[in-house]
Automatic annotation (TrEMBL):
This is HTH araC/xylS-type domain-containing protein. The lineage of its organism: Bacteria, Bacillati, Bacillota, Bacilli, Bacillales. Residues 647-746 form the HTH araC/xylS-type domain. GO terms for molecular function: DNA-binding transcription factor activity; sequence-specific DNA binding. Gene3D superfamilies: Homeodomain-like.
Length: 755
């Protein structure tokens, strides 16, 4: 199963979206955290303000209680009276009714020292009955009420439970003040009874937070009252709250729940006021803010994504066109690559192809140079211009017009030829000279070709200097044979024969030496009065005019004459080379003849032979093969030749027709023929011209691309090989009666018509 792969375009799109979203999310997170901090600070400050108001109001109430207690302590009638009748008692109790002065006073009770009764604005009580049946004060027993009251030395606040009647809230708060105030031996105690529900109203301010709860703690940390006990009633939680410092803010954990607590202690009353709110309640507005922010960020991200997509789409169009061109040119060679990866794959393929071509070129250039130099030695170039045109591409050019062949031979046979082959002749010759090394598998000789200007020839001293440098470089004894100078390229074969002859005289003239052919006693061609130049010219004429049999007969006669009239092996070799060169050169120049020459030039093969008989056999064999090739050519009909040429033209056009630089001259150059002959052969075989056929190939491919792809017309023009859009559209309309766009619409509407 093919692995899903994300296209490079989508990768870039996602990366740009991340670049957009990461700062937005980071900024949102920073704002959110900052908002939470502000919210907590504001909540703490609001709680502090609320607690301050509660504390102030509570302190005012208690101050009023102290004032009332002071008034009572100064009233001798209340403190010393001993009512005997009901009327006296009623009048006395009426003086204790302060409920109108302070709404929080539900009942005011006065305890007088050494008195058996507790006086109240509502009734009188015995201490024992008071604690058992009226108000049960928290932590007090009935039989110790009087004792507890007598022991008070300062104001005390206690919780109590009402026993006598059904009230709105049976729980009460009792504020007990010894009188006289600040006396070392108080004479009594004034008790202010407050209903708890009234204090709850005091500590329950209007708030949108339903889970906010407030507490009042006494000086020992015990809870006097709380506004919402049903919300915060867990013992562990209450224990943590009551143990908080007297003032400030804190966070309390109770299991998985988190609570934010603010507290304020009153320096006047010693009471501590506490507010508690759950983290969930506090964060409710923050969550709402976060949700709104997420929606806003989502809208920003969505708008940014659309903008990024649009900009990428706009900027990606040229790349998309390039990808389509790559697909059209490379096809399945790109493997599983998608999107921009196709461009990378195409560039990788191109780089691989270039490196392979470069490596092959380096090897091929060296091989082609050696082939051209071997052809030069073979006599295959009539002029220096022809040689330079053929060798310019591979860096092989001659600029001098006098040439000599130099052969270097090791005195003691060894493997020095490989070392000599690696040497650069230019390193051992004057700068004004040109030199090339020819690598032939002919034995143990290095072959150099040296060229120079006639006014700056190679003297004997220069040759000896070169010899000394080579001997020093190689550390071996070397014999150098130098052929005669020639001013035409086809004379190099003769110079080669002369260089070989010079080496053959090393036994006479000395080894480890430079031997010039001109210094040898060799008999020169023509010295004996016989010169077959006229016969060579006659053979050349007969072959050119097509008289092959007559030329073959004359060649056979000339071979016999060379064997009879040559007094030395050198002369025989010289004339045999001339004969072979004459025949093979004429045959290879004839049309429709593919010359088949050996990898080693004939002149090198001839100089390896050591007898007249071997020379004659080789000459006869080479000439017989050449004449046989001519006979085969004559047997072929003209129609066969034309058909073969047509097939070659057709194959070339099918491969190169989509190159916008294609011309008939390119075709003629690559097929080694004239433009006129190619035009004529193609017209006769196909009934159409070359350019009509090329245009047909291009149009067919254009129609196929229009029908099967969504490539633009401009891209198709580049793929099929037209030079510009307007000429393509004009030709397309002329041939199809429709513009390319209309043709595509027509094909899309009728898929069955797609060609």
């Amino acid at each position: 199963m093919a692995k899903w792969k994300l296209s490079l375009w989508n990768k870039y799109l996602l990366s740009y979206l991340l670049v957009l979203l990461l700062p937005v999310l980071l900024m949102g997170q920073i704002v959110y955290v900052h908002f939470i901090g502000i919210l907590k600070e504001q909540s703490t400050e609001a709680n502090r303000t609320i607690l301050s108001k509660i504390s102030e109001q509570m302190d005012n109430n208690l101050n009023e209680f102290l004032s009332i207690a002071a008034l009572i302590s100064r009233s001798s009638q209340l403190m010393e009276a001993d009512p005997r009748t009901t009327a006296e008692l009623g009048k006395l109790l009426g003086q204790l009714d302060y409920s109108a002065a302070n709404e929080y006073i539900d009942e005011l009770i006065v305890y007088r020292k050494n008195s058996e009764l507790l006086l109240s604005n509502k009734s009188t009580y015995l201490p024992v009955i008071f604690n058992n049946e009226v108000f049960q004060i928290d932590g007090w027993n009935a039989d110790e009420v009087a004792e507890k009251l007598q022991a008070l030395r300062g104001p005390v606040i206690k919780t109590a439970i009402q026993k006598t009647r059904q009230a709105v809230d049976p729980k009460a708060i009792v504020y007990m003040v010894p009188i006289p105030l600040n006396a070392e031996q108080p004479q009594g105690v004034v008790m202010f009874v407050m209903q708890e529900y009234k204090l709850k109203r005091l500590i329950t301010p209007a708030s949108p937070m339903s889970s906010r709860s407030s507490f009042i703690l006494d000086s020992s940390g015990a809870i006097l009252t709380q506004s919402q006990p049903q919300l915060y009633s867990k013992p562990t939680y209450l224990e943590k709250v009551t143990k908080l410092p007297g003032e400030g803010g804190a966070t309390v954990m109770n299991g998985s729940d988190t609570y934010h607590v603010s507290s304020l202690r009153s320096n006047k009353s010693g009471l501590t006021f506490v507010t508690v709110i759950s983290d969930e309640e506090l964060m409710r507005s923050a969550v709402q803010f976060r949700n709104r922010a997420l929606v806003a960020l989502g809208c920003i991200a969505f708008a940014g994504a659309i903008l990024i997509y649009a900009v990428m789409r706009l900027n990606y169009n040229p790349i998309k066109r390039l990808i389509r061109l790559t697909e059209a040119r490379w096809g399945n060679k790109l493997g599983q690559a998608i999107g921009l990866e196709k461009l990378h794959a195409a560039m990788d393929k191109a780089e691989e192809a270039y490196k392979a071509w470069e490596a092959q070129s380096q090897t091929a250039i060296g091989a082609r140079q050696q082939q051209q130099l071997a052809e030069l030695l073979r006599g295959g170039f009539d002029s220096i211009d022809l040689f330079n045109r053929s060798g310019a591409e591979i860096g092989l050019v001659l600029t001098r017009n006098t040439y000599q062949v130099v052969l270097i031979e090791q005195v003691r046979r060894g493997n020095l030829i490989e070392q000599l082959s690696s040497l650069n002749p230019s390193d051992y010759l004057p700068e004004a000279l040109e030199s090339f090394h020819i690598q032939l598998t002919t034995g143990e000789r290095a072959i150099w070709i040296v060229s120079y200007e006639p006014d700056d020839p190679m003297t004997a001293e220069r040759w000896r200097t070169m010899h000394r440098q080579l001997v020093e470089e190689t550390g071996e004894q070397l014999t150098i044979g130098i052929g005669g100078a020639c001013t035409t390229l086809d004379g190099l074969g003769k110079s080669y024969i002369e260089a070989v002859s010079a080496l053959q005289y090393s036994a006479v003239l000395g080894k480890n030496n430079v031997i010039l052919f001109q210094n040898t006693p060799v008999e020169q061609p023509g010295d004996n009065g016989w010169d077959p130049s006229e016969q060579f010219a006659r053979i050349r004429e007969l072959l050119t005019r097509g008289y092959t049999d007559e030329a073959a007969r004359l060649t056979e006669e000339l071979v016999q004459l060379i064997a009879a009239r040559s007094s030395t092996l050198y002369l025989a070799t010289y004339w045999c080379y001339e004969l072979i060169h004459t025949v093979t050169k004429v045959v290879s120049s004839l049309p429709n003849v593919q010359a088949q020459s050996p990898s080693i030039p004939y002149v090198a093969l001839l100089t390896q032979l050591e007898s007249f008989e071997d020379l004659m056999i080789m000459v006869q064999k080479v000439c017989a093969e050449a004449y046989s090739q001519l006979a085969t050519l004559e047997d072929r009909t003209g129609e066969d030749v034309k058909h073969e040429l047509y097939n070659r033209i057709l194959a070339y056009l099918n491969e190169h027709a989509f190159n916008h630089q294609f011309t008939v001259s390119m075709l003629a150059e690559d097929l080694s023929s004239s433009e006129a002959s190619l035009r004529r052969a193609f017209k006769e075989a196909s009934g159409t011209t070359i350019f009509q056929y090329v245009n047909e190939l291009r149009m067919n491919k254009a129609k196929s691309l229009l029908a099967t792809t969504d490539m633009s017309v401009h891209d198709i023009v580049e793929v099929v090989g037209y030079s510009d859009d307007s000429s393509f559209i004009r030709k397309f309309r002329q041939e199809n009666g429709l513009t390319p766009g209309d043709y595509r619409k027509n094909q899309c509407a009728n898929p069955s018509r797609i060609q």
